[in-house]
From TrEMBL:
GO terms for cellular component: peroxisomal matrix. This is malate synthase. It holds the Pfam family MS_N. Residues 1-24, 77-107, 541-584 are annotated as: Disordered. It comes from the Eukaryota. It is found in: Peroxisome. NCBIfam families: malate_syn_A. InterPro entries: Malate_synth_C_sf, Malate_synth_sf, Malate_synthA, Malate_synthase_CS, Malate_synthase_TIM, MS_C, MS_N, MS_N_TIM-barrel_dom. The active site is at R831 (proton acceptor), D1111 (proton donor).
Length: 1201
């Protein structure tokens, strides 16, 4: 590059969602911390205003970018009156550095105060510095765009430095806000090694935003207001603040229309020079709108059909308008590409192909109209460029790539996934070649800019960054096409693109740092055996005289590569390709051979005089159409989104992703600090291999801190409810709920039809019986129906391991248990323990491991690839979820795990049980967080009732009647079901029904018939409500459930039924439930809870009690109701006052009754010891399972693997 670069590693991706997930203490707490930090660093003036507004600011919820900015700015201006006591009259001309600190800087600003955090306060620039920055701005932006009337601006700047009095007057005008923005932009355009992180000019930009008037009054500024908004938009755009820029540019367009700047030249009622200025500013605004909208895949603010394209003509005192006009045409064509080619089905095949031909013709013509003094002679290998010319060509070639890239990506996808059914036609090859050549020319332009020292290298120029990334994207896709040929080296231009991104990154451009990371990681996968791209995130390159990042020419293996200790992979000598003006540096079957010399009627060899559809033929036209409308490759034209689609769909083995957990970056794990404290036996030694234990340790070290943080948030939510804050839909995620376009994953193999699922623990007998049942899926339960003794958990893993491999048959006494072979076995879905449970028999670094991660880790590690080979996959049920942040943690676990064993992301599927009152308000968000792994939601009815009582236990208005009266048709349960089904189907995923807990009665046919009728009614309610499947707890109930669902749901599921429902917060917490609290209900609750706890203490997770299959969830409902009734002094229908004394008397009676009929060596006395304090309205354990867990642990000395 001709200069020494310092590579600054960027550890935090420039990604709003990524930053949110790592905020400590939740959204609101984090916001309050930031406000207090900002207060310490602001000027006396701003401090004064913030103190006046403290209560208002504290009430603002965190909102994404523009919304928060708008709210905060509105607050500034609500307090913008000239208060006589305000310190404004004493405010200094510059802001003093009261508390300089070099804090970590995040580019995702929530306000202008956040923007300047960690950046020293700065004085306004002196006159010489102002002129220098203005010249930088003009040289970079003043030819192809038009932001300022240069004469007016320089006159005002002269006045600014003329005298103290004139300076004070200028600083009190709207022009001074414009001046600050020009200075901020100028700072962005210089190569400035800074000591603090953050975008150059941020402090001046923040000061400009502080001075910005309310948007409803900015029109009073006239054309200066438009210039201000235009520059503010550009500053945000250059700093990769695309959402904020989109918000600003929409306002800018509307102001321009309000001022009439879009009117034809002859209709503007002002002086000729002002008309010329207004028109040029208008077309600059138009370009910004088109490009920012295209970059986000969103609609532009103005429809071209309503515009008069009266482009600027020559005007005295102004530069030639031709560069500006060319830029406008490119922007207009880019917008048309996005709105037509990427409209997904809006155009017929013939219309789409014709539209593509016209767009390519337009780009060809635009390229030919670039003024001669800006044109680039590509036939000269050492061509020179101007800044303005380079900018136009970069945008032109990006538009060509945008027009053709889906064809390239579709063909590469077909080749890599071996789904290609027809040979690649010469026409398709021509288009791919055109896309590739555009990418190569982009890189050559960027290299020429670096070669010419007189060209300003603006490290924050968004179109330089976007062009480099777009070109690298294409070159990597070419690499995929040749991936089977391990001896094909990467093109020189890819190294040059990496080199350019590295320069931008080292200058502090965090967006470039993330793109650089993406490009390196994908490249390292494509050319894994040719060149080392990644070692501690650094591309390894030669160090001799060649350009930085270009592999050295050599005739011996590994020339120019870093030395490696030990055996090295096979590597080929790299020869530096020689780029030419017209021939790409590679050839290949998919892209055709070297092109002939291109004539004037061709665009890099594509003959545009012919009818494109006829020239391509029907086969090629169909291929082009399908490339833009492939439902398995939903391309948007947005670089980062299309890149993400390729990560999901094109990486064989799933080893290339945005945030891969490579071996070199994985949490380093050693077995020395892992202790296995449970008894060792044949099953444990088979399951707890060194490799599996290492994986468990990695899971623990990677995710345990986040788990602990989320558990603390659960405690805080309970405190909030106790203090009067009822649960509600989250305002900070409203945009997720309101966006109707996103969907969850398509159903995975084996999960399309789930009409009846059986549930049960993982003992060997249950596993065989469940898999032999006439059901569609078996939920193998490590949670509520399973007692989590060490032996149960390990033996359960061994049983599932054997069942998956069809080696689970066994003999018990004289009876043989064998898997049936006459039909396909039900799909296996494992349910892990919840986030709240520990596995105390397995510790890492002295801490017990999460039970959820222990269950998931062993099942996934041993069985994922085996399940895939059998046509299914690693599928899970996730219980006790309380927020979308907990779903996000699971998604992170899934991504890391899939990367670790080398399978594609999205292979894991998870159904979330909505069984907490807080989760019901975040169902959209939960599916969204897991969307690539989501297989739907389930109505966990018993736990849901339990958490309803638990969450509101300290509030007297939420009393519920006897458990038997709280059915699925009571108001709050009905609202819960309706909202769950509506939410799931709107997002394209399954809405699963709940458990039929009744079990057959052999001793009483009449009672049995009544019970089975109840099961039928429950399943009929579910299928008619819209559920896609249901649960049963006993094989005998499977036929009843199947009969009902087969009759009323003839299709595999009914996701296509999308009921419109209106469910409010009040509906979901409506505790008005018909029924009574009875003396018998009290005794039943005591009987169920004691009986269940006694069995659990013996290691039995589910028990048949009173002909109901009781598990932890049903027991939790019973004991929580008892606690609530005593705590709030409720009386039964018979008039019994439920106080502590009464409850303990009944408790003792029930305990004695159970002891009389119990076998010896029972655990009733121990169960009574734990339950007794839990039913008096005083002590309340979060979960019975955590209360009792120490009693079933069998911790011993650690044993060696």
């Amino acid at each position: 590059m001709g200069k020494i670069r310092t590579n600054i590693k960027q550890n935090s991706p420039n990604n709003h969602e990524h930053n949110l997930r790592h905020l400590p203490g939740g959204y609101q707490q984090g916001h309050q911390i930031r406000v207090h930090q900002a207060l310490r660093r602001l000027s006396p003036l701003v401090k004064y205003r913030l103190q006046v507004m403290a209560q208002d600011i504290a009430s603002i919820e965190r909102a994404p970018g523009p919304l928060f900015e708008q709210r905060l700015r509105s607050l500034f201006h609500e307090n913008n009156g000239k208060d006589p006591d305000s310190p404004e009259k004493d405010a200094p001309e510059h802001l003093e550095n009261e508390d300089p600190r070099d804090l970590p800087f995040t580019p995702e600003w929530t306000s202008t105060n956040e923007l300047i955090k960690g950046i020293p306060h700065q004085a306004f620039p002196k006159e010489a510095e102002s002129n220098r920055l203005l010249n930088l701005f003009n040289s970079y932006m003043g030819v192809t765009q038009h932001f300022l009337d240069q004469r007016t601006f320089t006159d005002n700047m002269t006045l600014l430095f003329n005298s103290q009095a004139s300076r004070a007057r200028q600083m009190d005008t709207p022009w001074f806000t414009l001046y600050l923005l020009v200075m901020a932009m100028g700072k962005l355009m210089e190569e400035d090694p800074r000591e603090v992180r953050g975008p150059p000019g941020a402090f001046w930009f923040a000061e400009a935003m502080r001075r910005l008037p309310p948007l409803h009054s900015i029109s009073e500024y006239g054309i200066v207001g438009l210039e201000i908004l235009c520059l503010a938009t550009t500053y945000l755009q250059w700093n990769d603040r695309k959402n904020d820029a989109y918000f600003f540019v929409g306002t800018t367009v509307r102001l321009a229309l309000t001022l009439g700047c879009n009117l034809p030249f002859s209709e503007q009622k002002c002086l000729p020079s002002e008309r010329a200025h207004r028109m040029r500013v208008w077309w600059t605004v138009y370009m910004l709108d088109q490009r920012i909208s295209a970059g986000l895949g969103r609609p532009a603010s103005v429809d071209d059909r309503h515009l008069s394209f009266d482009l600027p003509g020559p005007s005295p005192g102004f530069d030639s308008p031709e560069p500006l006009n060319v830029n406008v045409k490119i922007a207009r064509t880019t917008g048309e590409i996005m709105s037509s080619l990427y409209s997904r089905g809006a155009l017929s095949q013939a219309d789409l192909v014709r539209k593509m031909r016209n767009l390519l013709q337009s780009l060809h013509d635009i390229g030919g109209s670039i003024p001669a003094d800006l044109a680039i002679d590509f036939s000269n290998k050492q061509f020179e460029v101007t800044r303005a010319g380079a900018s136009l060509y970069l945008r032109l070639f990006q538009s060509i790539i945008l027009c053709i890239r889906p064809i390239l990506l579709q063909k590469v996808k077909d080749k890599v996934q071996k789904t290609q059914k027809q040979a690649v036609t010469s026409a398709i090859s021509q288009l791919c070649l055109l896309c590739n050549e555009s990418a190569l020319r982009i890189i050559r332009i960027l290299m020429a800019m670096q070669r010419q020292e007189e060209i300003v290298e603006a490290p924050f120029a968004f179109f330089d960054l976007d062009a480099a990334f777009s070109a690298a994207f294409v070159l990597i896709m070419r690499g995929f096409a040749h991936k089977q040929d391990s001896q094909k080296p990467p093109p020189q231009e890819l190294f040059q693109a990496i080199d350019f991104l590295e320069y931008l990154s080292s200058a502090g451009n965090q967006a470039a740092a993330q793109r650089l990371k993406d490009v390196r990681q994908f490249s390292a996968h494509v050319w894994a055996n040719v060149v080392a791209f990644d070692k501690d995130h650094d591309v390894q390159m030669g160090e001799s005289g060649a350009s930085h990042g270009v592999p050295q020419v050599g005739n011996t293996p590994g020339a120019g590569l870093p030395e490696q200790s030990g055996p090295s992979p096979a590597q080929m000598p790299l020869t530096t390709p020689t780029p030419s003006s017209s021939v790409p540096s590679w050839e290949g079957e998919m892209f055709g051979g070297p092109a002939d010399t291109y004539g004037s009627d061709t665009l890099f060899g594509l003959n545009l005089d012919e009818n494109l559809e006829q020239a391509f033929g029907l086969e090629a036209a169909e291929g082009i159409y399908n490339s833009f409308n492939d439902p398995t490759l939903p391309l948007t034209g947005v670089d980062q989104l299309d890149w993400a689609e390729l990560e999901k769909m094109m990486a064989p083995g799933g080893s290339v992703f945005k945030y891969p957990y490579r071996t070199s970056t994985m949490v380093q794990s050693t077995l020395d600090s892992v202790s296995i404290l449970g008894a060792g036996n044949e099953a444990s030694r088979r399951i707890l291999t060194k490799e599996a234990v290492n994986f468990l340790a990695i899971l623990h070290r990677s995710f345990e801190p986040t788990r602990q943080h989320l558990l603390k948030l659960r405690q805080q939510r309970q405190i909030d409810t106790d203090n009067g804050h009822l649960p509600d839909f989250l305002p900070e995620t409203k945009h997720v709920r309101d966006d109707k376009n996103w969907r969850g994953a398509q159903p995975a193999p084996g999960l399309v039809n789930r009409r009846v699922e059986i549930t049960g623990p993982t003992d060997r007998k249950m596993v065989v019986n469940a898999l032999n049942s006439d059901v569609w899926a078996y939920m193998a339960d490590f949670e509520d129906s399973n007692g989590p003794t060490w032996d149960n958990m390990i033996q359960g893993q061994a049983n599932l391991y054997d069942a998956i491999r069809r080696q689970v048959d066994f003999k018990l006494g004289e009876k043989e248990y064998k898997l049936r072979t006459d039909r396909t076995l039900p799909t296996l879905i494992a349910r892990t323990r919840g986030w709240h449970l520990d596995e105390k028999h397995f510790t890492v670094d002295g801490q017990p491991m999460s039970g959820a991660l222990f269950d998931f880790g062993l099942y996934f590690f041993h069985n994922a690839k085996e399940l895939i080979s059998r046509g299914a996959g690693p599928y899970f049920y996730l219980p006790k979820m309380e927020s979308h942040l907990e779903a996000r943690l699971w998604n992170d676990v899934f991504n890391m795990s899939q990367d670790y064993i080398g399978i594609s992301r999205g292979t894991i599927r998870a159904t979330v049980l909505i069984e907490t009152i807080s989760a019901v308000f975040e169902m959209d968000e939960i599916i969204y967080e897991l969307r690539d792994h989501s297989s739907g939601l389930n109505c966990g009815r018993w736990d849901y009732i339990f958490t309803f009582v638990k969450r509101f236990r300290n509030r007297p208005g939420f009393v519920l009647p006897d458990r038997s009266d709280v059915s699925m048709t009571v108001p709050f349960m009905d609202a819960y079901v309706k909202l769950l089904i509506s939410t799931c189907h709107a997002r394209g995923v399954h809405a699963m029904g709940g458990m039929a807990a009744l079990i057959p009665r052999k001793d009483d046919p009449a009672a049995n018939a009544k019970a089975m009728d109840s099961v039928r009614a429950d399943k009929l309610r579910e299928v008619k409500a819209g559920h896609d499947g249901t649960w049963v707890a006993h094989p005998a109930l499977a036929s009843i459930a199947s009969e009902i669902f087969n009759e009323h749901m003839p299709t595999a599921n009914q996701i296509f039924i999308r009921p419109e429902v209106k469910v409010t917060r009040d509906d979901l917490i409506n505790s008005v439930v018909p029924g009574k609290i009875t003396d018998e209900g009290v005794r039943k609750n005591l009987h169920i809870t004691l009986a269940y706890m006694e069995g659990w203490l013996r290691g039995v997770g589910c028990s048949a009690i009173n002909y109901l299959m009781e598990d932890a969830a049903t027991a939790e409902v019973s004991r929580s109701q008892l606690w609530y009734w005593v705590h709030h002094g409720v009386s039964t229908a018979e008039g019994t006052k439920l106080d502590k004394t009464t409850m303990l008397n009944v408790f003792d009676e029930v305990t004695k009754e159970l002891l009389k009929s119990a076998p010896t060596n029972n655990k009733f006395e121990l169960a009574a010891k734990y339950l007794r304090p839990q039913v008096t309205g005083e002590d309340y354990a979060d979960f019975l399972t955590t209360l009792l867990y120490d009693e079933i642990t069998s911790v011993g000395p650690s044993w060696k693997l």
